[in-house]
From TrEMBL:
Residues forming coiled coils: none
Residue intervals passing through the bilayer: none
Domain NAD-dependent epimerase/dehydratase per the UniProt entry, residue ranges: 2-231
Protein name: Nucleoside-diphosphate-sugar epimerase
Superkingdom, natural source: Bacteria
Family the UniProt entry places it in: Belongs to the NAD(P)-dependent epimerase/dehydratase family.
A GO term, aspect molecular function: L-threonine 3-dehydrogenase activity
Gene3D superfamilies: NAD(P)-binding Rossmann-like Domain (3.40.50.720)
BP GO terms, sorted: L-threonine catabolic process
């Protein structure tokens, strides 16, 4: 059985639904700090769980005979800069709780998300390799780097089966992002349809790695279904699909909504974006567990506008 912590969040919502389709509603226990999403709450078992409460997580794991945990609760980059102490507490201690439960053999497998935010200003910006300089300059990035180190440590020293992906910015029509720097690439579609214009909080040429949610969910499930010996990297895998600037995504939207206009008014998130890579090399994921993305900017835009329109 599977437990998802943070099941009502941006990724958790879609991951829960997909896992329920694959493994059956009753075998996928959704949990979050509150009942924030009615689809998630009503489509199968749901528990209110605080990711910072070890005893609560342990209790739910025993009650439902859980083997696998997907830990999707976290504060994202922009929110973390506003509340560094809480971000560090939540992002690190929730991970320790789950790693320690695996170390104690109460669960067999963990999925934990890392991010391209793990990279910093001294990392090569284009085609960022799997193994490179990693000096993150954001609270969120520091928590992801530390998390990656601990995942690898728990695997090497205690034999914990933990698997992880460095997600790029994720774009979805069905779930809203929650406080990230890449959120503009979701908002822009909503505003293009509702207002015909969008004011972007990043500058026009800010290029960032992005991925459509369908690909991200498939990657998450594929890395968890891979055999143990295929997973050679136990920190976190680079993962890529597309990279674009606000200018480029606006041009793609204009193909469908010719009157669409974008303006720019960068805020504190510009500095966060500037510290991250522009594009990612994910050949290790391709080689080790057969990763291949499907969606590019063009096909994603068609699908987004079709669903939202
Ligand atoms: C954020 N979407 O902007 C997240 C992500 C690629 C960064 O982890 O904070």
């Amino acid at each position: 059985k599977i437990l998802i912590i943070g099941a009502c969040g941006q990724i958790g919502t879609e991951l829960t639904q997909k896992l329920r389709t694959i493994y059956g509603n009753d075998n996928v226990i959704a949990s979050d700090i509150r009942k924030l999403n009615t689809d998630v709450v009503n489509s199968g078992p749901f528990e209110v769980v605080n990711a910072l409460d070890f005893n609560q997580i342990e209790h739910i794991i025993e009650k439902h005979h859980i083997d696998e945990v997907y830990l999707m609760a976290a504060l994202l980059s922009a929110t973390a800069e506003k509340n560094p102490a809480f971000a560090w507490d939540l992002n690190m201690n929730s991970l320790f709780h789950v790693l320690n439960l695996a170390k104690a053999k109460k669960i067999k497998k963990i999925f934990w998300p890392s991010s391209i935010a793990v990279f910093g200003p001294t990392t090569p910006k284009e085609n960022t390799p799997q193994f490179t300089i990693i000096e993150p300059s954001t609270v969120y990035g520091i928590s992801k780097q530390s998390g990656e180190r601990w995942c690898e440590y728990y695997h090497n020293i205690f034999g914990v089966d933990v698997r992880s992906i460095r997600y790029p910015g994720l774009i979805s029509w069905s779930t809203a992002p929650g406080g990230g720097t890449t959120d503009y690439a979701v908002d822009i579609y909503h505003k293009a349809l509702s207002d015909g214009k969008y004011e972007c909080f990043l500058s026009s040429e800010t290029k960032m790695p992005m991925m459509y949610m369908d690909d991200a969910i498939r990657a998450t499930i594929e890395i968890m279904q891979a055999s143990d010996d295929e997973i050679k990297i136990r920190s976190s895998y680079n993962l890529a699909a597309m990279s674009f600037t606000p200018t480029e995504i606006a041009a793609e939207i204009k193909k469908h909504i010719p009157e669409f206009e974008i303006t720019y008014n960068p805020d504190f998130r510009q500095k966060i974006a500037d510290s991250w890579p522009a594009s990612i090399d994910d050949k290790e994921a391709q080689k080790d567990w057969g990763w291949k993305h499907e969606f590019d900017l063009e096909s994603m835009t068609v699908d987004m506008l079709e669903h939202l329109g």
